[in-house]
Structures are given as structure tokens and as C-alpha cells.
Amino acid sequence: MNTRKYLIKNSLVACLVGCCVSLASAGNPPFFTTDAVLNAKGELLMTQKGTRHLDIFSADGKSLLHSFPFDEIPTGLLPDGDKVYVTTFEKTGRLQVLSLESGRVEAAIPTGSGACHPMFGPDKKHIYVCNQFDNSVVEIDPVMRKVVRSVKVLREPKSAVFSKDGKYMFVTNFLPAQRADVDVVAACVSVIEMEGFTKVKDIQLANGSNALREMCITPDGKYIYVSHNLGRFTVPTSQLQQGWMNTSAFSVIDVAKQEFVGAVLVDEPDRGAAGIWSIACDDKHIFITHSGTHEVSVIDHPAMLAKFESYKDKSRLDYDLNFLYGLRERVTLQGNGPRNFIFSGDKLIIPTYFADILNTVDINTLEVTATDMNPGRTETPENKGEKYFNDANHCYQGWQSCNGCHPGDARTDGMNWDLMNDGVGNSKNCKSMLYSHVTPPSMISGVRESAEYAVRAGFKFIQFFEPEEEMAKCVDAYMKSLRPVPSPYLVNGELSDKAKEGRKVFEKLKCGECHSGPYYTDMKMHRIGEDIEFEKGWDTPTLIEVWRTAPYLFDGRAATMEEVFEVHKHGIDKKVSKKDIEALTEYVNSL
Length: 591
Fold this sequence. Notes:
InterPro entries: Cyt_c-like_dom, Cyt_c-like_dom_sf, Cytochrome_c_Peroxidase/MauG, Haem_d1_sf, WD40/YVTN_repeat-like_dom_sf, YVTN_b-propeller_repeat. The structure is a single chain. Among the domains are: 387-481, Cytochrome c-like domain (Cytochrome Bc1 Complex, Chain D, domain 2), CATH 1.10.760; 497-589, Orthogonal Bundle (Cytochrome Bc1 Complex, Chain D, domain 2). With 591 residues, the chain is α+β, with helices and mostly antiparallel strands. Strand 27 (342-344) and strand 28 (347-350) form a beta hairpin. The protein contains eight helices and 34 strands. Strands 1-30-29-28-27 form a five-stranded mixed sheet, with no helix packed on it.
């Protein structure tokens, strides 16, 4: 990598002068920006999770012009003249139509659980929305203001791009959708044929690919680049050097062939680039934000492509930490947690999720100007804990944060890991952190007596860093603050008729003897199932939000909850009908 000193121009504004809306007061909550775009006027539009607002700033981020509240968290936005289409989700996924003239929401179109990433189709006549938790993409007629077509993908779609001819949509699946006790575990990109609006292919990426974030298509339409984490789950978690556990990459997909070609690592041999997030490109450059190390990579696009296309064995490319040597500059940003960004003309506009500092990068000089968009910003212990959870700068060589194995708001990556705390050679499926502090012990083997102990051990043995107690307490507070997402299996927030029948089966089979109480766990160890590794058995996990944590059982051998009961007979010692298993599955997935 070429070493360069970057000029950081700090215009950290103490107060906003001449704004239509003032932010200059103490005690302001964090923004937690979920999306940002420029409108036709050059104004900066941002959706904020922390305030549930759509904010409109001047292009430099110094003046807040307008602010519009929403009833649920805004997750994405799509400006269109005097209207803005805003996806929102907490309980009900919707595309809301905001009139900028009146400041009113003119319509709220139900889309599906986890609505995000609104975008116009190639014909500009339809809007498409990813429903992360409904595992679907929907087509919306903005004139009729209703969903006209829907298609299922694999698991947690969060972003999409169209081929240049408009015939296909490529959709990221955030996590692998398969069993984990096999040699190859990786997330896929789904391909939607637009005329029939049907899924025609799932393109599996390199082994260990997970947390698929964003995509971009090259100007000539030949390739699609997908940013994602690359977990090295096949080895014990004994060290960090040279990306031993986690690396960051962007995968290359051949659009015409609809095939995975190779994965390019964006880390270096002795310096990680954790928390890869958004990606964009033009003919000259590829831009990538690193939310864990608080940087943006600027890559020489033509040189990278020439080297990539001439690389002999692309199946080994995802282990080559030297590939980008001499082809990329790493630009340090102000603030913490750069995620989504805007590529406009000769500059990058980059908000920071955990600081509300807006970075503007001149792509010709790599000069950075930083503006404080939220003076008076204050953080609760929970806010600080989430920041520490996602920050890789305190990790040895910046290889990973807690988010590396627990992406998607401290949940699971869908893979098995061989942690050193219960021996070697005995991989276990990654667990969600939801309710971990109130359902001890921790780990499926119960080897950690509490989540508090596990948090501190995780920093020490996974990030090779001794946290100060105050930092660890903040991470505890963040994890304690996690709340379940309403199950997409619910109907208007209630159990379906099928799930109600499943509850009867749950009771008949006495599942509640182990899965009892408000968290559906007795917090005890039980010898159940096959391959019981320890004499005391396995810890009983909570069933809350279990619909989100596939695959199942201690080593992820069951890809679906139905397989847990039908194939592996978990907790079932008698003959159960197919109908009862389907109802039981529906009930458990509704918790």
C-alpha cells in the first residue's frame, strides 16, 4: 500500500447558524443514520433510526433544513420530486409516501417484515423493496400505491441491483440459508428474472461468505461487486494474524453468466479492514467503507480488474492478502462507524453511524472535510456499548469486532465456530446474543457461567484485547437492551390458527418441561439428542426469535425448524403426524 499523509480539515461545527431547525442543544440523541441520498436540489436527505426522523440538510451537512417524524424506524429512502418514499419497520414493514410540500404522509403501503432498500426499477414506473425478515422482494405500483408482485429469495435480502438491460435483479441474502455442519457454508446472491418476477438462480459465494451488505454494478454492466464478511470457520479461533478468523472482501459476479468469479480481500497481511459495508464504483475507482476501522478504501478500478482477470487460480484469490498492494489507498475518516455513503461527482459524502460526523472526501486529492451534524450529541451506556460492539480499532490489528461473528444487531452469522473455551475440534453453531444476559449459562455447552463473563472473555480470547471494565459494562448494557423483532409468522401480531394448533402440540409433547417461562428456557443442562459431547449435556436455549437464528441444534445440522422435529426428532419420543409437526414448527417460529 502506498503511504500518504492525508490532510484532515476539521470543520466540526459547534452550533448550526441560520438553520431552519436548530440542533444546538445539549442532550441530543444520536442519529444512527440508516440511509443517505442527495435529491435533485443537491440537498442531503438522511433517515435516522435514533430519532425516527427523515432529516433534510444542506449538502455540506451544516444546516438542518427540515425534519419529518415517522411512527416506526425509517430504514431507507427514495426521493422523487416533491415526494420521498421511505421504508419503515419496527413491527409492520411499510413504504411510506411523504409529501415534502405538506409534510404529511400521504400513504403507507404494507410491504412485509423488515422493509428496506427502496429503489426504482429500470422503467422508473415501479418501486422495489427488500423485506429482510419476510425473505422477499416486492414490486410496488406508486400510482396505485399497492404491492403488485412478490418473489421469495433465500434469507434476509438487504440490497439489490439491476442488470444494465433491466432483465434481471440481483439480490443479496444477508446470511447463509443451509445447514452448518458441512465443508462449505456461504451466503448467496439470488437472481430474479424481471418479466416473470421469478427467482431463477442462487449464486453461492466463496466459503465463509456472510453478512452480505451492499452491491454495485460496473459501468459497462459486466460485473457486480458484493461487499461482505468472510469467516474462516474451518479452523480453531486460536489467533488473529493474517485474517485467521475473519476477513473482509468483495465478491465479483459475472452478470452475463450469472456466476461467482472470485472474492477480493480488502485487508492487508498485518492490518485488517473490518466491518466492510457499502461499495460503489465508476470507471476509475472502487469505493468501500470500513465501519469497524473507520476508513474508506479508494481502489484503482482498471488496475484491479486487469490483475483480477489475469489471476490464474481465482479459487485461491480469497486468501490473497497482498492482491490490492499498490492498487488501493486507505483514507482515515473522522468519527466512528462509516456505513452508507453517497458517491456524487468528484466527492464521497460519508455519515458515521456512531458519531454523526459527516465526512466529505475529495476523490482526486483524498482530502477529508469533517462536519459535526449533531452538536450536543449524548450517548447512553447502551449507545456506547453498541459502538464498542461494532468497533474493530481496539482489536489486535483491526481484524474484527463482535459484529464479525454476530452481525445484524448482535444475532448470528449462521456458521459453526471452534472456540477454545471447551476444547478443540468440536465446532458449535454461533448463537444470537438476544436475552443472553437473562438466560445463563452462556454457550451451548454452558462453559461460561454468565453473559457478563462471556463478554469479557470474548474481548480477551477472540479480539486479543483486555477491555476496561467500563467498556465491558457498556457492552453488557447494549446486549441487555436488545429486544426481539416480531416474528413474520404472526398475523396482525397474533398467533395464526395453525400456530395455535402448534401450541397444543407443544404442550402435548411436553416441550415446556425444558422450554419454560417467559424466555422458553429452564436455563438448565439436559442430555438430549445425538452426539452428546459433555456428560452434563447441553444448555437449553431460549426460543424467543428462534425463527431468525437458523440453522439449529448444537452444530447447525438442521437447516430449518421443521427438520429439527421431522428429521432429528428433537424432544420427540413418540410418533407424531406430519400435520402436527408442521403446526409445531409454525408455533415455535412464531415466538
